[in-house]
Specification:
This protein is an alpha/beta fold. The protein has helices spanning 33-37, 44-66, 85-102, 111-122, 162-172, 179-187, 211-226, 233-259, 274-287, 304-315; strands at residues 2-7, 12-19, 23-31, 75-81, 106-110, 130-135, 140-147, 150-156, 263-267, 290-292. The strands form 2 sheets. The chain has a 5-stranded mixed beta sheet with strand order 3-2-1-4-5, with helices on both faces. A 5-stranded mixed beta sheet has the order 8-7-6-9-10, sandwiched between helices. Helix 4 crosses helix 10 (304-315). The chain is globular, with a radius of gyration of 20 Å. The chain starts with a strand and ends in a 24-residue tail after the last helix.
């Protein structure tokens, strides 16, 4: 079964063709990240305009690279939530038009479910149930994947997401956007114990909080500047990365221990962070748990993950009419019958 996936929830315009949720035939991505970097972060209006310009060429390239025509597709899957609403609507409306023109089923896909489905492309043998940390620019969740389309949230951020904290700390340290890669690069030359940073308290046993950690970095930088002292950027980057990676790894491993999970997974843009991967891998090996990590290329936003999850949503009968709307926020465990 061939599924065309379309993704436009943030600043990547992407299209991909995936077979049976496991085999990637093509993936096309156009990004406005260089332009967004001029402003230190994503400007929603600019992102939406670039999606409008890029979406048709991206879909055409994905189909051409896969060697299939629209008539050969079995369904069209699209990110409909969550994300920047103007950006999401570009993808949703394009997918609706294509579905109408071709008579193919329209499959709405939740963005975070898509991030988890990226694992099926890297690990074709992976099947639920498993425990997954989904960490990205806008989300930080510990999710029990009970079935391909059934999820239970065990923990989440109570304020900033991990990726958002990386972006804000990078800006504070004068590092370029996006923050995750730039902080990680700077941290390679730094001492992870160079600065003492706090571990913010979160109410639930598997919840996380990063607002206080981000503020601690900002205060340390401001205090150093007021004293006329130079900020040791590599040390601060390394200390921040170490703290945030330790928090995420400890929460995931604690959830695995308490729930008896046998398989752990990482997903989302922050899953590409090398220190987080190392800590989770060490913890999983010590506990005798299986660990599945997505390919770095599939950690960020892409349409392959949307097509992969679209296959399972379609098999579950989760299709939509041409009245499908986009949503800026929506929980991962939403009821498909209510959209």
């Amino acid at each position: 079964m061939l599924i065309l996936g379309i993704e436009s929830s943030c600043d990547e315009t992407a299209a991909a063709v995936v077979e049976d949720g496991r085999t990637l035939h093509s993936s096309a991505i156009a990004t406005s990240v260089a332009e967004q970097a001029l402003y230190g972060g994503v400007v929603p209006e600019i992102a939406s305009r670039r999606h409008i310009e890029s979406i048709s060429p991206a879909v055409q390239k994905a189909l051409a690279d896969a060697g299939v025509s629209p008539a050969e597709l079995d369904a069209i899957a699209v990110t409909f939530a969550p994300g920047l609403i103007g950006a999401v609507l570009v993808g949703v409306n394009f997918a609706k038009g294509l579905a109408c023109a071709t008579g193919k089923p329209l499959v709405p896909v939740h963005h975070l479910r898509g991030h988890i489905a990226a694992l099926y492309l890297t690990h074709p043998e992976l099947k639920p149930p498993f425990l997954c940390l989904v960490a990205s620019g806008g989300h930080s969740h510990i999710v029990k994947v009970e079935e391909y389309t059934r999820f239970a949230v065990l923990g989440r951020t109570v304020d900033d997401a991990a990726g958002e904290a990386f972006d804000k700390v990078a800006r504070t340290l004068g590092l370029p956007y996006p923050g995750g890669p730039s902080v990680s690069k700077a941290a390679r030359q730094g001492n992870p114990h160079g600065y003492a940073l706090p571990t913010p308290h979160a109410p639930g046993p598997y919840d996380v909080s990063f607002s206080g950690l981000k503020t601690a970095v900002l205060n340390a930088v401001n205090q150093a500047r007021m004293r006329g002292e130079a900020v040791r950027v590599p040390d601060m980057a390394a200390s921040f990365q170490e703290k945030i990676a330790c928090i995420l790894a400890q929460k995931l491993l604690a959830a695995a221990r308490d729930t008896g999970a046998a398989t752990l997974c990482l997903a989302g843009g922050v899953a590409a962070n090398g220190r987080l991967r190392t800590l989770v891998n060490e913890g999983a090996q010590k506990a005798g748990l299986r660990l599945c990590l997505p390919e770095p290329a599939l950690c960020g936003d892409n349409a392959a993950m949307i097509a992969a999850q679209g296959y399972y949503e379609y098999c579950a009968g989760h299709t939509a009419s041409l009245n499908l709307n986009g949503y800026a926020t929506l929980p991962i465990d939403y009821n498909p019958g209510e959209i």
